[in-house]
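User: Protein folding is very new to me. Would you mind checking the protein record under this note? It all follows right here:
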Amino acid sequence: MQALDALPIDLNSVVVERVSALWQHAGLALDLNVIDAQHAWLVALVLELEWTLIHEPTEIPDRFRVILHEAGEYANEHFSVEEQLMHAFNYNEETKHIKSHRKFVQILGQLAGGEQITSREDGERLYRYLRKWLIQHILVEDRKYAEYFRRRKLVQDANSRLDSIIKEGRYHLHGQQQFLRLIGRRGSQIDVSTPELLKEIGSMWNRLNLATGIPIIDIQHLWLIKMIVDVDEAMRESSMTRSAVLHRTLSEASLYVELHFRTEERLMDLLQYSDSEEHRKRHHAFEEFVAARKGDFESGNMRAAIT
């Protein structure tokens, strides 16, 4: 993916998909393009930490040291840009906001301990703090100044000011704006091809003997397996990630039902399949199941939604 080539560290492709799901599900966009690009990168760092902790523990501590260094770089650039923006528009909570920035830098330094991430416990502390910051700072504190700009109809002016700050050349987004466009596109298909994911999909495919010999049907069945594996992996992750993945998967499942079932039904009609009516009944039952799970999720009943 070209959008990822300019980023300062490589991301697991599943993590990129997770970032997209969380970004859209949690409504993280503030409509301040440069700020959103920087926030999207922080989300990526947090979810990369989570993925490493749960799925690739042998990569600790090396991977965490890389991410810790990048988190420090992120803080230096993002906070400086944000503070210039708030000052330029006389944001009434500027002083309080800057104090929260200084506290973040202080605590990040303490967690780093001279960049000596040596154990899983060290990594978990770093992950928990960055996740807490993501939730509290972006979803609460940063929304306040975004709303300040909206109420005063200053969003366009704020974006122009941000563009000017970046053009000064002191800050480098390192592909973050392209990354934001990638994860922000609704319905965009991100290439997810980690060896672990492909192995699990292949294992389920062979174990259940799902091949039909009809290419379009087999491809759609692989799509369904990928969704199942994705949700299964997310069940081991944080509630924040789990909720975002489930939201994305339920929407994707609705699309799958429409495309796959209609394809199968047209094919059965064409071939004059004798058991067509019974097969359609099973389709209808599954459509009702997906709709019910989506309704459970939207009503806040997460437990029912995943059963």
The chain has a mean pLDDT of 87. The CA atoms of residues 132 and 138 lie 10 Å apart. The radius of gyration is 22 Å.
